[in-house]
């Protein structure tokens, strides 16, 4: 793992595959770390691309914008998704990647959309995985928001609860392509051990809301774009992804029956074929 400076901030970065291959930059979702990318996805992409992953600000081992644990949760909004998109564009430059394929998961898809709209010269293609379009706010189904809010006692700001987090993650599953509970638990335990920052996650949630509606921005995207989404996603309804794809000229959407919102080895098995087909077609055209 390397630490890469973008302005005054430092980001934890890892690379996989041949640096001579076309670069693809993966942008993580809310509270997710670079270790949360399924290895099957990294491995499949690294066979044809130079893969770069990183921790977003306020996550994992990257720069923090306040305390990670406290007896009291703050209400400040020190940044928005537009600032996180500037981080991503800055990393592209700092790493000398030139034009990249961008893949964003959930919140990372929203960040990648902003990068593609504002920095078209840096983006070869855009893939939005389990992500929305330009809609404002967090779109999780009411029962998801209620369960996550009700099951967050103040003591979680000081110490993690792996059992609780595993039960919460299970709420993100669809009705097919279900992640084994042991995998969910192992991933959560590894992430907690590496970097537990619940207040950073809260700041990211406020960053999503503060970004507002981005519909007009999506209309400016010129890079070839693919949305990959599950029909049973309980966090971002598939209709929100369809609406986003409709705003971007030439974008298309691949809907996977029964897929939910968890980024797991099971989800990777469903997403890899359409993703590789999309990227492979672009590289063949480029040649």
TrEMBL record:
Residues 22-264 form the AB hydrolase-1 domain. This is Pimeloyl-ACP methyl ester carboxylesterase. Gene3D superfamilies: alpha/beta hydrolase. InterPro entries: AB_hydrolase (IPR050471), AB_hydrolase_1 (IPR000073), AB_hydrolase_fold (IPR029058). Signal peptide: none annotated. The lineage of its organism: Bacteria, Pseudomonadati, Pseudomonadota, Alphaproteobacteria, Rhodospirillales.
